[in-house]
Structure formats: C-alpha cells, structure tokens
Amino acid sequence: MDSDKFVKFCYENYKDIMSRYGAELPSKVEIVRIDGEKPRFDTDKAYFNLSHSGGVMMCGISHSKIGVDIEKIREIDYKKFDFIDAKDVEDFFEKWTERESYLKFTGEGLSGFRKEIPADAHFEHFPVWDEYHACVCAEEQNVIAYEIDVNAIND
Questions:
Q1: Within a 13 Å sphere around the CA of 117, how many CA atoms are in the beta-carbon half?
Q2: Distance (Å, whole) CA 18 – CA 113
Q3: Which of 84, 80, 79 is nearest to 114 (CA)?
Q4: β-pairing verdict for 47-53 and 66-72
Q5: Selection from 99, 102, 92, 91 nearest residue 137 by Cα
C-alpha cells in the first residue's frame, strides 16, 4: 500500500467527522516530502503521522501536531533497553509506543530516543488487536480511532 495514498484516503474520509468535533480542516491537502524532514501536509491547519508494524498501518490526522506509533508485540529482550522501565514484554511495548509517538510528535526522531519524556506529555492508547499496542501523542483533544480496510482504497 502506498503510504501517501493511504494518508489521503484517511483525510478525505474522516475530515468531516473531525470537523464535527471542532477541527477546522482544509477541504483539500497535498503531501509535501523534503529530504531529511518528515512528510507533512501543505498547510499548517492539518497534520498527520504514520506508523506501521507487522503488516498494519496507523495514520493519525489532527488540527495540531501529532505523533503515532503501532507495534506488534513480539518476543524481545526488553531488559537490554534499560532506559525503559518495563516489568514485562507487554509493558515494554506500551512504553515503547509512547516514546516513539512522542518523538514523532516533537519531530526529534530517533536521535532523542534515550531522552526522558516530559511528565506533561499527553498520550492516548488504543486497543487494536490482541498482539498490538497503538499510541497517539498530541495535545489533549478528542481522539477517535477507526479501523480501515485497505481493500476499500481504490486505485
């Protein structure tokens, strides 16, 4: 699945729903890609972020900055990541998705992965499927999750 096509599909199909919650979003957007920067819309009135893991894609769209992460829970030696205080694998992936969504929210990228996350960072966790963790980092707002069948996206 082409990620730009996926983002535009999400935006086109959900901007009206988001508008009902007070988000004033442009009717049309284009995706801008510049080497060394994260992809963005061509406006400062709408933002998006993407994540994928284990064959699943997640797209966050907002009227303000947003960072998202989804991870397939898998066996991993989580104790090697001593900067993440986790009690088990499940807890590790919950904290990992927070960390990654925060770094995508701030735009720091993975270079800041070991930095401490501020206590006032706002996270929303979503139950997706049993073997996944999904997290959104954004300013506090109405965050709603939808499942999309990518087969509905026409060429």
A1: 22
A2: 31
A3: 84
A4: unpaired
A5: 102
Number of C-beta neighbours around residue 43 at 10 A:
13
Specify the number of domains making up the chain. Answer: 1
> What whole-number distance in Å separates Cα of residue 122 and Cα of residue 30?
28
Taking alpha carbons only, the member of 62, 90, 72, 68 closest to residue 128 is: 72
- Domain housing 46: 3-152
To the question of pTM greater than 0.85 for the whole model, the response is yes
Please report where in the chains the tokens 């993407």 appear, as a residue: 50
What single-letter amino acid sits at 59? Answer: C
* Backbone φ and ψ of 89, nearest 5°: -60, -45
Amino acid identity at 145: A
15-24, 118-127, 140-149: range with highest mean pLDDT: 118-127
Q: What is the pLDDT of residues 137-150, one digit of tens each?
A: 998 876 777 777 77
